[in-house]
Amino acid sequence: MGGKLAVFGGKPVRDLFLPYGRQWISKEDKAAVERILDSPYLTTGPAVAGFERKTAACTGAKYAVSFSSGTAALHAACFTAGIREGDEVITSPLTFAASANCILYCGGTPVFVDVDPRTYLITAEHIEAAVTERTKAVIPVDFTGQPADYDAIRKVADKYNLVIIEDAAHALGASYRNEKIGAVSDMTMFSFHPVKPVTTGEGGIITTNDEDWYKKLVQFRTHGITKHAPDYIKERAPWEYEMQFLGFNYRMTDIQAALGESQLDRLDSFTLMREAYADYYNKAFRNIKGVTVPFQEQGGRSSWHLYILKLDKELTDRRKEIFEALVAENIGVNVHYMPVYQHPYYQKHGYDQVCCPTAEKLYQQFLTLPLFPAMGQQDLDDVIEAVRKVLNYYQGGSGS
Ligand SMILES: *Cc1c(COP(=O)(O)O)cnc(C)c1O
Questions:
Q1: Distance 189 CA to ligand 1 centre (A)
Q2: Is the pLDDT of residue 1 over 70?
Q3: 122-172, pLDDT tens digit by residue?
Q4: What structural domains and CATH numbers belong to the chain?
Q5: Could you say which of 92, 111, 113, 295 is the most buried, measured as most Cβ atoms within 10 Å of its Cβ?
Q6: Whose CA is closest to 330, among 23, 25, 24, 6?
Q7: pTM
Q8: Is 316 exposed, middle or buried (0-12, 13-18, 19+ CB in 10 A)?
Q9: What's the gap between Cα 274 and its chain centre?
Q10: Which residues are catalytic?
Q11: CA-to-CA distance for 130 and 160, rounded, in angstroms?
Q12: Which ligand 1 atom lies nearest to the CA of residue 73?
């Protein structure tokens, strides 16, 4: 079926390389950015405030504070939650390094707990088993866009007085028990990197319902400075302001915010498209031997940031060849993620004894297929054809 593999000199399924994810910039997006370039404010102006208001409205949260990246936003959230040296914070190993690095930035200790083999998400049971008297917070990751089980996680968090900082970098547009992601946890982080649900180039945001945290987040992204006289520690001259704690310059520009605000207009349609594409993949791959399609828990509705096929034992042993064969067919497959504690930095800093067996096994089995709204029907069909062609080769007698 499908002829000779491109990796062996056959004709690739398509001529143009298809990435696993990519932004979609419209005429309206460009016009919005251009308006800012002609305006008096390039940063910290009305577009930033407008983008924050709109993100809050989209997610049902009271407040939203934008940052220069999702990583900066996570740092701010950990700082605001009071994470400091000696504190432990529980998170998932199956994520981008930033989910755990933000704990280290504050002097805290990341504690990795294993994931559920079906959802790939950390569970309330695993979290509870890892709680000590030093645990201050938990950072669940809505991996692939599927929300973690927040009812169960909330119970554990309340029992041990933990702050829930949700890493929803994948999950803008998702919902949990009919509530939008963004208003479910104590603080929620979204990323606006170009592969994420909507983009600002680089950027991130924290949503929260807590006014005190909101003020702290705003101050943290501007060096810890406040210009709000009622908050001053001393009486001040009109030109003075106060730096009250050590913050950073983590501000988003108005250029980025205008792009983000314009992109948000299409968030619902982007999410529906991702959902429809995932459905199309599911139908194509559900009955193929050797792969498992993504499992979806009842309570959540995924934003489908990533579509991951899980390979069975036989295919897992040949994943490197399968990966290379698909790239040769011009299909931009990817693998998300190597467990964070396996990175050399973590290995060097005391994590060489850590083992989350399910996460490690899943990492060997995963293959991320291209999925983004700007894909067309032909792109989807190319992916399906290439996957069938390549798996057929490596599965049957011909591959061995
Ligand atoms: C992208 C991402 C981040 C970091 O966001 P940036 O905007 O790239 O800094 C954090 N966590 C996860 C799970 C991500 O995918």
A1: 9
A2: no
A3: 999 999 999 999 999 999 999 999 999 999 999 999 999 999 999 999 999
A4: 6-22+267-395 (3.90.1150.10), 27-264 (3.40.640.10)
A5: 92
A6: 6
A7: 0.97
A8: middle
A9: 15
A10: 196
A11: 11
A12: 9
Residues near 125 by Cβ (< 8 Å), separated by ≥ 6? none
On the CB side of 14, CA atoms within 13 Å amount to 19
Q: Is residue 221 within 6 Å of ligand 1 at its C-beta?
A: no
Burial of 220: CB neighbours in 10 Å, binned 0-12, 13-18, 19+: buried
Rounded mean pLDDT of 318-333? 98
How many CB atoms sit inside 10 A of residue 107's CB? 12
In short, whether 166's Cβ falls inside 6 Å of ligand 1 is: no
Q: If you write DSSP's letter for every residue of 267-291 in order, what string do you get?
A: HHHHHHHHHHHHHHHHHHHTTSTTE
pLDDT score recorded for residue 2: 65
Tokens 């998300």 belong to residue: 336
Residue 83 main-chain phi, psi, to 5 deg: -65, 130
Q: How many CA atoms lie within 13 A of 310 on its CB side?
A: 14
DSSP state of 204: E
